[in-house]
Amino acid sequence: MPSFDVVSQVDRQEVKNAVEQANKEITNRYDFKGSDARVEQAELVLTVFADDEFKLGQVTDVLRARMAKRNIDVRCLELGGLEKISGDKVKRPITVKVGVPQDKGKQIQKLLKDAKLKVAASIQGDAVRVQGAKKDDLQAAIQLVKKSVADLPLQFTNFRD
Fold it and tell me: Which of 28, 55, 127, 132 could be bridged to 50 by S-S, CB 3.0 to 4.6 A?
């Protein structure tokens, strides 16, 4: 029975490269001279540091631009709360979301069931497996999910005949 998986993944090496490029651009920019603006990475948690909220926004914009250039969907970034460090300095954690959350998986499952397509969706960890009797049904399911889910970057992998 043909099937495919709906997943949400990012290339960790590309994230690392984007962070390094953003840091390089920040150190070279004139408006950041003498400031403590930088981006640090610990696995899938990025921490943006800056002297004030305005510069923090600029550093975040530089990071997003670098990620977009490296083909990382910026919808996978989840901004955390603003934290004051010492004096005027601030930081903000940014989480790189990987995997389809349980509630989003249930939403995709319900969407496919309500569309009356001849496919069956099942949640398997942080992915949604979709099975159907015909490839055409699976392709229709892919199109429906692409059109309906816009707040999460989804990939369709592991296509089997």
Answer: 55
